[in-house]
Amino acid sequence: MTIRENIEKIEQETLSPFATLSQDSKGRKVEEEPCDIRPVFQRDRDRILHCKAFRRLKNKTQVFLTPKGDHYRTRMSHTLEVSQNARTIAKALRLNEDLVEAIALGHDLGHTPFGHAGEYMLDILCKDGFRHNEQSVRIVEKLEKGGKGLNLTWEVRDGILNHQTRTMPHTLEGKIVRLSDKIAYINHDIDDAIRAHILVKEDIPRELREILGETTRERLNTLIHDIIINSTGIDDIRMSKDVEEAMHRLRRFMFQSVYQNPAAKGEEVKARELLKQLYRYYTEHLDRIPDTFLHMLDEGEEIGRVICDYISGMTDQYAVAKFSEYFMPQKWQVDGY
C-alpha cells in the first residue's frame, strides 16, 4: 500500500460521512498517474501554491489602493485568511481540509490589478464580460504553465467557480470557503478601515456589535463557532438566522461606509482609466503582448479576450509601470553627457 492509499484509508475511517473523500473525486479533465504520496486534493493545493498567478497576489489590491503602510491587506493576505478560517471550520466538522485549502488558495487567482475597480473596468471592456471567479477557473484550466493549465480536479474547480454569493458549490468544503471568504473580507476590511481612520469601532451599529462582538477576534470567534455549531452532523453548511442576518447587515454597512467611501476609493477613477488606456493600447499594438498569450489567437480566441487575460494577470505595480512606459515621457541622454 502506498502512502497516498494509506492516507485515503485514514480519510475513509475518520472523516464525516458528508465529507468529500479524495478517492471519490470526479477526477481531472486529463487523466494522470496518481501520486504515490499525495491524495488528489493535496496535489491540487500544491499546484496552486506553486503557480505564478498565486505569487502575483501579494502585489494586488484588496480594498485600499497603494496604501501608505505595510499592514494593509493584499489579495494574498486575504487569501491566506480565507484559508485559515476555512480549515478551522473543516477540521471541526471532520471535512476534507486538503480540498478546503485548495479551493481557498485558488479562489481569487483571477482578480485584476486594483481590486474590484479593475474588475469593473474589464467587465465593461471585455466583450463577454469579466468576472474574477470565472477568470480564476480560466487561469487554472488554460493560462498557467504556458497554456497547459494546472489540470485540477473537478471539485476544486467547482469550489473556485462558485465561491461568490450568487452561486453555490456542490461540496460542503466549497460551501465552507464561500462563507469563509465573506467572513475574512468583512472583518479584515473593518480592521484596515480603522487603521486608515475611515472608521472607528463605534461606527459599527451597536446591535451588530452586541451580536457579533466588539473586536475582530470576537467577531471571528462568533461567526466561526456559529457555522460549526449549526453544521455539525448535517449534510449542509449553515449559520443561525440571527448571526447570518447580522453578518449580512455588517456587509451592507461596509459597502455604505467603506467600499463606497470616497476616502477609500478616491484613486479608483485613476485606476479604471489606466486599465482602459492599456486595453486600447494593446488593441493597436498586439506585438507588445507576450507570445504566451498571443498563441491563443491561433486557437480561435478573440483579441479582446486575450488582452483581458494579459491585463487581469498584472499586479498593480506592473500595470502602473506599463502605463508609464507607454504614455509617460522617458528619460534620455545624448552620448558623452
Give me the secondary-structure topology.
Blueprint lengths: L2 H12 L25 H11 L1 H5 L18 H18 L4 H10 L8 H11 L6 H16 L6 H8 L10 H24 L10 H7 L3 H16 L9 H19 L2 H4 L2 H17 L6 H4 L8 H10 L3 H12 L10
Helix pairs in contact: 2-5, 4-5, 4-9, 4-11, 5-8, 5-9, 6-14, 8-9, 9-11, 9-12, 14-16, 14-17
What does it look like?
The mean pLDDT is about 95. The protein has 17 helices and no strands. The chain has a single domain (about 40-60, about 70-320), classed as Hypothetical protein af1432, CATH 1.10.3210. Helices cover about 60% and strands about 0% of the residues. It has helices at about 5-15, 40-50, 50-55, 75-90, 95-105, 115-125, 130-145, 155-160, 170-195, 205-210, 215-230, 240-260, 260-265, 270-285, 290-295, 305-310, 315-325. The protein is flat, with a radius of gyration of 22 Å.
**β-sheet strand percentage:** under 5%
Largest sheet descriptor: none
Please name the CATH architecture: Orthogonal Bundle
Radius of gyration: 22 Å
Q: Kindly, what is the distance between the CA atoms of the first and last residues, rounded to a whole number of angstroms?
A: 72 Å
Put simply, the count of helices is: 17
The CATH class assignment is Mainly Alpha
**What is the string of SSEs from the N terminus onward?**
HHHHHHHHHHHHHHHHH
Low-pLDDT residue spans: none
